[in-house]
Specification:
Blueprint: E1 3-7, E2 10-13, E3 18-25, E4 33-39, E5 46-52, E6 58-60, E7 68-73, E8 78-83, E9 92-99, E10 114-115, E11 119-124
Parallel strand pairs: 2-11
Antiparallel strand pairs: 1-3, 3-8, 4-5, 4-9, 5-6, 7-8, 9-10, 9-11
């Protein structure tokens, strides 16, 4: 049993920065990947970034590469998403996710096992 809880969303202006956190909790925790997806109204769930829990290898969507940074703190069972140079099109509900075993479709949300409740990020223009 794993629970993921996101925090850090809010309303910012274009060009601002915002940091998201996702804390994993439960009696046991085991993951191979943790990552972030986002969903805009009327859009499909979209891959943002992922990280391997052990090695720290990172993966990014082209739309956020160079602006967003994913990281993790193994001791705290927490994954972070630092978002810089935010754009209005970054406005979405951001979801934390985890895959407990190795997966091969990192950009496919259906491959992940656990999901957080989501946190709203709104970038004003």
């Amino acid at each position: 049993q794993v629970q993921l809880v996101e925090s850090g969303g809010g309303l910012v202006q274009a060009g601002d920065s915002l940091g998201l956190s996702c804390a994993a909790s439960g009696r046991t925790f085991s993951s191979y990947y943790m990552g972030w997806f986002r969903q805009r109204p009327g859009k499909e769930r979209e891959f943002v970034a992922a990280i391997t829990w052990t090695s720290g290898t990172t993966y990014y969507a082209d739309s956020v590469k160079g602006r967003f940074t994913i990281s993790r703190d193994n001791a705290k069972n927490t994954v972070y998403l630092q978002m810089n140079s935010l754009k209005p099109e970054d406005t979405a509900v951001y979801y934390c996710t985890a895959a407990q075993r190795r997966i091969y479709a990192i950009r496919n949300g259906n491959a992940y096992d656990y999901w957080g409740q989501g946190t709203q990020v709104t970038v004003a223009s």
